[in-house]
Amino acid sequence: MDTPERNQIATPISKFEDSPVFNYINSLSPIKPVKSIRITQAFSSLTFASLPSIFTSPHVSSFHKESRFLRSHQDSDPSNTGTSCKDENKTPTAERDVSDAAQVAEIESEVQENFDILVPIGESSGEPLNEHQEFAIELPQSLKYDCGSPNCNPTPCGIAAACTVSKSDAPIVEKDFQIDLPDGKSHHERISQQKNDTGCGWESLASESTDLLIFSSPNDAAAFRGLMQRSPDVEVGCFASMVSNFPQNEVNDELKKQLLYQLTFDEQHEAEEPSCQPVDSSEQKDTNSLQNGLAISTLGDHTGTYSSVNMDNEVGALIPFANKPISDLPRGMRRRCLDFEMVGTHQKSLDGGSGGNSSSLLKSDENNIPKNKQLVVVKRGGDSTRCIVPGIGLHLNALTSSTKDSRIVKHESLLSDVQALNVHMSTTSLQSPLTSQELLHKSLTLSNAEDMDCDDNGLQVTEEASQAPADLIYEEHGQTSPRKKRRRMENGGESETCKRCNCKKSKCLKLYCECFAAGVYCIEPCACQGCFNKPIHEDTVLATRKQIESRNPLAFAPKVIRSSESASEFGDESSKTPASARHKRGCNCKKSSCLKKYCECYQGGVGCSINCRCEGCKNAFGTKEGSALRGPDCEEEEETEKCERNKAEKIPWKMENKNSDELNLASALPSTPSRFRRPLVQLAFPSKLKQPRSSFVTIGSSYTLPSSQKMGKPDLLLPPPPKFEKLPPTITEDEIPEILCSSSTPMASIKSASPNSKRVSPPHSDLGTSPNLRSGRRLILQSIPSFPSLTPQH
DNA sequence: GAGTTTGAAACT
DNA sequence: CAGTTTCAAACTC
């Protein structure tokens, strides 16, 4: 789609330049390096991205596609994998190549280390070729990123592409790529590709995942050009990918070195056109298809790589990202979430054998990697563990409210956050590799650190909000029963994250299923039986969804809406009581008096309204009678008072949370990643907002939990808060129509929303230090389709 | 952890 | 649209 890629990560280029590797390369190359300028770019690209549906499905389901890709790729190109290496070793020339490759590999690894890029080194510490192969997968992504980012200097990418294509003997498919030359000029380059092997790569990329080629069209690129600044990270990634490829490609050392050098600086606008030439000369035969094929699958992983760069080198690097408009980030991440979640989940299982599995894109070998560089092992396993996090916002928010208490986060929440991010990414072409990566990387890094805490579940989540919003460590060690997790979440207060259903008969294809209702795939932790709500059954899920929507278009729409103005401003909101939000359809409680979570209103943290048909309503957030008697205006006030009274007795936590949350949001969001996360949450919010259950939380909902809750110690005085102690996911009424009406395409939705400029933050706008949470959130709501669109996004 | 309660979702 | 059934979460013990 149109998603521009951004690299928000401020790459430590300077560091790179200072590194021995750099010097070495520099010495080899006639080109004189210019001191790189560190660019912090605000990520606005996301804003443009279309809102992806939670279900990555039709369009997205990058995961599936990726998987397919990998499979096909492998099948078609067996030589690319380990076999190729063996063959090379057998031949004399191969030896030389191998040695060269090894040398290059060394360099590469060093370079990468310098960049703190996560690399799949693990298995192949002794096998340069393998390592390279693994690296090779990055190339496609690099291309993607470069191409994707408007400002990004595509040269490297262009080169890479050219290389890939140049040697193909097979029939080729021509594609137009816009390449920005170092001199700043852009022109179209016709790149031919192999149709057979490569075809799967580029073509697939183009056709199947429009995401990958974000700016395949010049127009798009131009459109976004102003918005985004190319980030060094991207370049780095490209660079790394390129380098990795060389050995495989049997590129001669000189060329390799030169290329590396050029690539490195290309981004800095110092690259020279000649850089492409080496590529031409280089021989890329086998790797083309592989690289291309992997490209899609690796996206998620890549993200991680980039993030890692930021994370390791600079905590502050994340900031730029954080500053980006909320709407932007989440989206981008969504798509990737799927991949990432896998990463996080599988980390532990790396040893197990990701091995030949195409799924294992990134592997890190601790031995090979410097301490501070945590290897992220990404194992792309089957569909099993994908957790789409419904409530990223919550988690993130919770995380952001850094405190020791917050530190221990249920990894579930973290996962969910990450996943949610991934989901966004996956659904939208826009990806902010950093976000997902950051999370993962951070989590990984932290996991090593002493800070980690282990959950009952075995998931390890560590959060350091104080340091960086993105500092989240999550690791899944084991699984626990859904109930346990749920409990945890409740206790911890971050529980909204991942939904874990326990469906036995519905196959998770009905609204009974919380996961399905939330628009997320079931994940490993779910205890569901005969679950079809998995990426592998994407078609089924989508079809079912459509069917349900056909019956009830609002089936997946948020159930709780916030009264129009309330949300506009933090201050306002903080003063408002839950009553300002209402359950759209109302509840039908008869025995629970709307005082238990059986009641959707209560669960959602909102008062009952005239729409409710409840009997004996005693909703602590506002009774039906109360709302009926008073007008909306009075209602709020009265309810507020009422609520306060009630809360004091029954559910103080709610008010407290809300107020504090919002306040915190106002104060804390700016600095924390949560800002953008919130939007994500909403975006991610599936049509159905079961707040308590889903992790999706409306902005302000869960910013700060009482420390006790965070710690997992609910206030004793209070009744068990609804799952979302935070605010229930709510959306303003005026927003709802937009959301519902909003087309699946983000751009369109944005456009429609943007007229209400107050709410929408310009994509390019730099939130900077003072992000406007509201705007971000609003933007999300408006732009995001209530439910993941069933129709593929183009 | 098993069983019960509850109300939404689904079905008729 | 109303009544009934099914379902899974919420709750209780």
Protein described:
The chain has 794 residues and is mainly alpha-helical. It folds into three domains: 64-109 and 124-313, no CATH class; 328-551, no CATH class; 561-735, no CATH class. The chain is 49% helix and 4% strand. It has a three-stranded mixed β-sheet, with no helix packed on it. Strand 1 (172-180) and strand 2 form a beta hairpin. The longest helix has 27 residues, at 287-313. It is elongated, with a radius of gyration of 25 Å. It binds a DNA duplex (12 and 13 nucleotides) through loops. Keywords: Nucleus. Residues 497-622 form the CRC domain. It comes from Rhodamnia argentea. Belongs to the lin-54 family.
Short structural description:
The chain is mainly alpha-helical and 794 residues long. It is 49% helix and 4% strand.
Ends: how far apart? Answer: 6 Å
Instruction: Give the count of structural domains.
Output: 3
The secondary structure category is mainly alpha
Mean pLDDT: 45
Strand order of the largest sheet: 6-5-7
List low-confidence stretches.
1-14, 35-102, 104-497, 564-579, 632-794
Number of helices: 34
Share in helix: 40-55%
Total number of beta strands? 7
List the defining traits of the structure above.
two-stranded antiparallel sheet; elongated; mainly alpha; 7 strands; DNA-binding; 794 residues
Describe the secondary structure blueprint for this structure:
Elements: H1 13-18, H2 20-28, H3 45-48, H4 62-76, H5 82-90, H6 92-115, H7 128-148, H8 155-166, E1 172-180, E2 186-194, H9 197-208, H10 218-225, H11 232-249, H12 253-270, H13 276-281, H14 287-313, H15 318-323, H16 328-346, H17 350-353, H18 392-400, H19 404-407, H20 411-427, H21 433-448, E3 460-463, E4 472-475, H22 482-492, H23 514-518, H24 538-551, E5 560-562, H25 570-575, E6 581-583, H26 600-603, H27 624-629, H28 632-649, H29 652-668, H30 674-684, H31 707-710, E7 731-732, H32 735-741, H33 746-753, H34 773-783
Parallel strand pairs: 5-7
Antiparallel strand pairs: 1-2, 3-4, 5-6
Helix pairs in contact: 2-12, 4-9, 4-14, 5-6, 6-7, 6-11, 7-8, 7-11, 7-14, 9-14, 11-12, 11-14, 14-16, 14-21, 16-20, 16-21, 16-30, 18-20, 18-30, 20-21, 20-30, 28-29, 30-34, 32-34
The structure holds a DNA duplex (12 and 13 nucleotides).
